[in-house]
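Re: [ENG-882] Designed sequences occasionally contain unexpected residues at chain ends

Forwarding the minimal case from QA. Structure tokens:
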């Protein structure tokens, strides 16, 4: 399994032995998992595995003993060549959608939540939980159910009804906070620390973020180890974007790819909550929190993003761009993706596709580039977000003549 050498401070590089700690004692920087690199790993090590879950990359995931893995057995998600979408955007021939809407709880959050709940089991914690913008609630609750652990969820009360019902169905205790995600996050943090619960995206964060690296590993394996030119990534806290970058670096350090200098990273946020993109556009190194996020993309409504500064750093490192789109652009992008590729995403995926479209229209992406657009959640959870753009089906008596007249 993944042999952890240390937890290393992202700011001051101080190293800690692996334990239940998530912030540097000296400088309060976040801690990242470092591995003892297994030099015998080759491309074939992974390619030859029959395990189709993301645990096929277990050497670079932070679980020491396989018996602690908590898995809902979701398979590697499709990397769909998106020629129809590419054509409608002006002849893009190498455009791919990483379709993470088809995970067991229908968002990419099954990756980080699955790893964090497994680690909570390995550390013998008595309960798990999360602060959620919607999707993490179900991902954590479902894995907690499988692990037989109690699960405490803290989320803003205005998230989509389906996301609440889904999380409750898995048995999660759902606290609907009348406030923003940042309010829910503060409460979850205190409850977690005072009770010793593993709050997956707070005190388990060093382990949590490792799960999202598999979004890099899978894409590389699916592209036959060709490093894409452009990644379009929706951003809330920024943890996923940063983890994907760490994933590409780790595969390079293992020697399975030789160079990632062509890689460009696009951070995509909604207009109604774009603190990171705004900092990028203002050439500022300060992420000014958005007090009251207001966007149809509720899963990205994090006003004070934990990894904001690190996303800015990644954009500098990888020649990146930050861009944002309006609610209307988001909804139209949802329908564009659905009608061209048969993929139904929630607004976060609409943010990624909408930003891709916008940058193509501004000639910031070339036709011959290899593009991967991450679609991270499922449209079935958020149907109310697009009903105003859809026609109302007219009803008719079950009479062939009447129906024939209708569809003519
Ligand atoms: C949480 C979430 C994101 C953003 O992930 P961060 O790590 O918070 O940046 C993107 N898409 C969906 C569907 C999400 O649920
Ligand atoms: Zn430090």
């Amino acid at each position: 399994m993944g042999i952890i050498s240390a937890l290393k401070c992202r700011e001051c590089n101080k190293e800690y032995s692996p334990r239940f700690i998530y912030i540097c004692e000296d400088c309060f920087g976040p801690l990242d998992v470092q591995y003892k690199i297994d030099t015998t790993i080759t491309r074939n090590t992974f390619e030859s595995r029959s395990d189709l879950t993301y645990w096929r990359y277990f050497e670079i995931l932070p679980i020491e003993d396989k018996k602690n893995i908590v898995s809902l057995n979701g398979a590697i998600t499709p990397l769909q060549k998106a020629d129809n979408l590419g054509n409608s955007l002006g002849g893009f021939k190498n455009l791919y959608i990483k379709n993470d809407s088809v995970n067991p709880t229908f968002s990419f959050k099954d990756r980080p939540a699955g790893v964090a709940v497994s680690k909570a089991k390995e550390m013998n914690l008595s309960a798990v939980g999360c602060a959620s913008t919607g999707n993490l609630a179900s991902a954590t609750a479902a894995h907690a159910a499988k692990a037989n652990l109690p699960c405490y969820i803290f989320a803003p009360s205005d998230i989509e009804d389906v996301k609440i019902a889904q999380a409750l169905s898995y048995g999660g205790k759902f606290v609907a906070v009348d406030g923003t995600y940042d309010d829910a996050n503060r409460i979850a943090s205190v409850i977690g620390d005072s009770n010793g619960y593993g709050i997956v995206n707070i005190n388990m964060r060093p382990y949590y973020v490792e799960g999202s690296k598999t979004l890099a590993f899978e894409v590389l394996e699916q592209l036959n180890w060709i490093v894409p030119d452009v990644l379009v990534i929706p951003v809330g806290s920024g943890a996923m974007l940063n983890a994907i970058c760490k994933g590409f670096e780790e595969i390079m350090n293992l020697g399975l790819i030789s160079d990632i200098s062509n890689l460009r990273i696009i951070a995509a946020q909604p207009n109604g909550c774009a603190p990171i993109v705004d900092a990028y556009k203002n050439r500022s190194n300060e992420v000014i929190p958005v007090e009251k996020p207001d966007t149809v993309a509720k899963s990205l409504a994090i006003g004070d993003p934990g990894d904001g500064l690190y996303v800015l750093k990644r954009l500098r490192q990888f020649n990146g761009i930050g861009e944002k789109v309006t609610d209307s652009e988001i909804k139209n992008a949802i329908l564009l993706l659905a009608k061209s590729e048969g993929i139904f995403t929630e607004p976060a995926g609409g943010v990624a596709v909408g930003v891709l479209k916008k940058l193509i229209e501004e000639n910031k992406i070339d036709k011959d580039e290899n593009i991967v657009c991450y679609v991270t959640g499922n449209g079935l959870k958020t149907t109310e977000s697009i009903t105003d753009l859809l026609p109302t089906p007219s009803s008719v008596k079950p009479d062939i003549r009447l129906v024939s007249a209708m569809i003519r």
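QA comment: On inspection the terminal residues look reasonable. The longest helix spans residues 181-195. Proposing we downgrade this to a documentation issue.
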